[in-house]
Structure formats: C-alpha cells, structure tokens
Amino acid sequence: MSAPELLPYLLKVNGALVLFCAVYYLGLRRLTFFGLNRAFLLFALLFAPTYPLLDFSGWLARTAPRPAELLRLPAEWSGLALPSPTAAPAATDWLLVAYWVGVIVFGLRLLIQLLAVRRLHRQSRPQTLQSWFFRRLSGPVMPFAFWQTVYLNPDRHPAAELPAILAHEHEHVRQWHTIDILLAQLSLVFYWFNPGGWLLRRALHENLEFQADYRVLQTRAHDAKAYQYSLLHQSIEHSPTNEIVCHFNFHLLKTRIAMMNTQPSAPRQLLRYIAVVPLAAGLLFATAASTAAPTEAPVAALKAAVIDVEKEAPISALPPAALAYIVQQYPGYRLIGLTEVRANDGSNLRYKAQIAFGRRPTDVLFDEKGLPLQTGDALIFLDGKRISQAEMNKLDLKLIESTSVLKGNAALKAFGQDAASGAILIITKQNKDSPEVRDFVRKYGIVNTPASPAVEQLTQLVVSGQGLSTNDLQGRLLLVNGQEASVEQSKVATDQLQSVFVMDAEQATKKYGAKGAKGAVLIETK
C-alpha cells in the first residue's frame, strides 16, 4: 500500500473502531450475553481493517456523460511545467514517520511480552491438582492461562481457593481466549494512536473474564460468595504483571463482582445486536460511495499533457467520404501519405492525410467517418471568461484547481462553431467556489473527477525521470510507444517524454485483454 493510500485507509479503520466501541459501551456492555459480546468485539477487530479493502463500488456505479474527446495540447505551453514529485507535503511525511515509529515500538513491546511468557513456560514444571493440569511457577506470579496451558504458583494461594482458580483459568483455555487477546494486542500495534482500539481491547479482556466467571459459577460446584472472596484475595497481592496474560486490577474486580450479581438479560435485549447490521452496512456504503466513479468521466487536470499517438496507415484505409472531400477541395492534388491518429488510450480515431497541393504538402484531418475536422485554435476559458493563448501561456500551474478539455460534438454543442477546434476550460483555486464559476460549470455540464493518489504518484514518477518499479505498477501492464516494456524502460528523460496515461482496469481489459486486468500505464516518447 502506497503512502498516499495509507492515511485514508487508517482514517477509515480507526473511524470504524471508534464507532464499534461506542456501540458496545453504550448498548451492549451491561448485557449478560457474553458469547454474543465476544462475537461482536471480534467482528469489530476483524471488520475494521478489512472493509476499506473491499470493493463494492460496482453497487453504486453511475453513468456519467460521455467524456469529451481529448484535445491535443501544445507541449510548449510553459504553464504546464510539472512539479517535482519529491515536493510532498512535509506534514504528511512526518505523520507517516510518526505512525511507523509507533508501530515499531508497539510491535517490539508485544514481542517482549511474548518472550516473557516463553521464559515463564521454560521455568515452569508440569503438575496436577485434583485432575486439573497446570504448570507450576515459583515467585510472585499471578495465575494466568496462555494458549492451552494454565500457569500457577500454588504456594501463593490458600488450598481451598485453588480449585476455583484452576476452574476459572481452564475456562479461558477451553474457550481459546488467547486468540482474542492476541488479536486485540496485534490491533494495538497498528492502531496504537486510536482510543477506540484501546477501549475495545479493554472491553474484550473484561468480557472474557465475565464469560469465564459465568461458566465457573454455572457448571462448577463453587459457592458464588466464596469465589468472589478468592478474587478479592488475589487483588490484595501485588505481583509483576504482563498485559498479554494478566488483566487483574481492582477496577476490573469490582466490575466482575457486579456482573456476577446481575440478573440475566431479558431475551428481548437480543434486539440490540441488530445494530451491528446497519453499522457495518453504513461503513461499506460509505466506502463504496467514496470509490465509486462514473463509468466515463472527463479529464480533470493537465499535469501530463494529453498527446495524440500517430501511426502510419495504408492510403487505402482513408474513408471514401474523406477522399471525396479532397477531390472537391484540392483539385489536382496528389495523396502522398496517411496517418492514423488516436488518443493515447486508443480512442478517438482520426485520419491525417498528407496532400501534395501547391508548393508544399498540406495536412488535412478527418474523423473516423471521413468528415473534415477544423484545425484552428481552441477556445480557452479561465474561470468562465474567455482568454487568449498568450494569456494561458502565462498561467502558473500552482494556481490551477482543474482543467477540462472538450473536443468534437461536446465542444460544438456547448460553444457553437467557434469551438470547432475544441475548448479548454480552466478553473483556478482562488475562484473555484465563486458564483461565476459555479454558473459556468452548471451551464456547460463540466464534471471534474480528480485523479486518484495512486495515479498521481505513477504519473509523477514517470515525468520526473525516476521511472517505475514493479511494486509501483502493482500488476499493471506497461507500454512504451505502444510496445510492452520493462520497468527499466519507464525511465525517460524529462525532455524526451511526450505523454503519460494511466488506464483503469476496465479500459485496459477491453483494449489489451487479460494483460490489462489490473490497468495499464502508457508512455510515449518524442
């Protein structure tokens, strides 16, 4: 997962943990359905880090207006100077550094705790008491269970209390409570900064003790008051503790005794668990809504100029309508060459005919059906006002919020015959929310879909000359000048780079088949 994708992922995960924590503490904690509470807490710990990775955007896929055909932009426009990809926000970098430092610290903490348990295991000796198997420890160690073993120093407890203590710890063993504890500890390693993670771990430890207490009193011949006194006796002793195995404290003791004296919850209280359904569905819906995109959308930025790809074609490929136009408009012509022109995603087929007419060759551009296309200057709008090419050349890219490029019927429909060669619609950051811009955007139906952080990163790695790695591609197909290429070939000098285009999986699969199942990166050089 790349750095730009990590922070949104962490925000989603930790937001989910806080929501599940609120539902538990406000609605479920005081219920005596300990098995269901355990299931809810485990579901929260597993669902939170998983749901942002699930792709349900197809449920919300919507049809957007067909994108305008892309206009070939002049490469000499100085306002299109690309920023260096190394100029990442410093605050984001420091947040990521702090996050990974925390992960390392808490990871080492968990490792030390596990090693401490291993050391105790090696120091212990197997022993049996009234058919209860345990490993005998020496020194001031609280009773605990880890995995499928109970650890106890019987010399620190009255003989009459040992059966109840062993029964309680063996309930932890029988129900595999160590799995819950390890999952909660692992969650803290990655979400150490989230109060919801800490509270969920505390709730999980607490509920496991409730569950063990309940089973001991229900299935074993132990007097409830004597059992509670034995817990009180253990709380008086002060012994070194390891959070991964020992959760005994005075506050938890009071809560456990109070829960043992609580009447069983009424069956109708089970309806509270239905809350998990809309909560999980809402999180999935929110994620799907944030990732769903129109099936087709226009280009929103000009960080990499969109350049047409040209390929020689036989003269016989020229549509009959184009040939008829040439005969009529260029009497005495001689057709000397034909070129196929496409956008670098393979769309928008046109034909460029080279005609020997007069003293020098003339290029005439036709659409796919053979109708002539005008090649005059495009209309340029800045914040809804028309400007000249010279004014556009003076623009600072840092001030631009978004750019839409219209061509063909889309441009003609919006602006009439003046836009026969297309239109460039530029919106600046300063005026993006102004009434004039809102009216302009609404009038011409401009849809701005910013590139994803992953696409931005791929584009900047190429345009900076750094090139791509296998990890950057994430399985995407790499094409350089229309040919499959290795990652080494993605390193192109800035002055030799003509264009970069990142195709999504759907587009790439349609064009390249299974090879494009995860998308494609198209690089064109000069």
Automatic annotation (TrEMBL):
Keyword Transmembrane helix: yes
Lineage: Bacteria, Pseudomonadati, Bacteroidota, Cytophagia, Cytophagales
Residues spanning the membrane: 6-27, 39-61, 94-112, 270-289
Keywords per UniProt: Membrane, Transmembrane, Transmembrane helix
Positions of the Peptidase M56 domain: 135-260
Protein name: Peptidase M56 domain-containing protein
InterPro entries linked: Beta-lactam_resp_regulator (IPR052173), Peptidase_M56 (IPR008756), Plug_dom_sf (IPR037066)
